[in-house]
Amino acid sequence: MGHTRSKDKDSEVIDENLKRVYQDMLDEKVPDRFLDLIAQLKSQDDTSTEGSAT
Amino acid sequence: MSSDPRDEIVQHLPALRAFSLSLTRNGAVADDMVQDTLVKAWSKIASFEPGTNMRAWLFTILRNTYYSNRRKAGREVSDAEGVFTESLSEKPAHDGRLQLADFRRAFVKLTDEQREALILVGAQGFSYEDAAETCGVAVGTIKSRVNRARARLTELLQLDDDDKLEMTDQATMAVVTGTSPSAR
């Protein structure tokens, strides 16, 4: 067994698992609280920048 | 440029949450970090250069917030083990499912800096340069963190010796002989 080859194989196994774990997290639904927060930030903005030319 | 770059933020929410959870290993802390990041990003949008990597910019705000909190607390969030794994739903049985749970347990044992570097480069697909900029360190530092993270995982998952091969052999043997392989 070539050592380098098995090391590459290890990295492959690690990255494969890493991507699956990460994908699971990406697939989670974004809670409404964040969309609400963005909407709130947006509306605050609209009020405070009213009249300014941006 | 007539469009507000902030309109783009919502597209990065899933990635921001995933990065936050990888870093904090705790669902509640992770979401608090995301919330802080959104508020900061909103007010600091002038410091974002349109046309550059917004995801990296958001990640930078999040990780800076996290490390600044960690410094104030004087320690890493330590109750992480188990929380990270429990806060994620397990995919239905497939090959390698056990291995995935093992992987998560090993992953949470890495240092914050190692997890961060490995996620950015290995999972999120950032270039070493983007990862280095996100973390505010040299490219060489990111490379060495990624290498150390991989080496540590290899050690924790015992991939570095012939165990994997041995296990395969044992499993094969079990099929052939009808006995179950001995528990490790």
Automatic annotation (TrEMBL), chain A:
Pfam families: NepR. This is Anti-sigma factor NepR domain-containing protein. The lineage of its organism: Bacteria, Pseudomonadati, Pseudomonadota, Alphaproteobacteria, Rhodobacterales. Residues 13-45 form the Anti-sigma factor NepR domain. It comes from Salipiger aestuarii.
UniProtKB/TrEMBL annotation, chain B:
It holds the Pfam family Sigma70_r2. Residues 102-153 form the RNA polymerase sigma factor 70 region 4 type domain. Keywords: Sigma factor, Transcription, Transcription regulation. It comes from the Bacteria. CDD domains: Sigma70_r4. Residues 11-75 form the RNA polymerase sigma-70 region domain. The keyword Ion transport does not apply. The keyword Magnesium does not apply. Gene3D superfamilies: 1.10.1740.10, Winged helix-like DNA-binding domain superfamily/Winged helix DNA-binding domain. One of its GO terms (molecular function) is DNA binding. GO terms for biological process: DNA-templated transcription initiation. PANTHER family: RNA POLYMERASE ECF-TYPE SIGMA FACTO, RNA POLYMERASE SIGMA FACTOR RFAY-RELATED. Belongs to the sigma-70 factor family. ECF subfamily. This is RNA polymerase sigma-70 factor (ECF subfamily). It comes from Salipiger aestuarii.
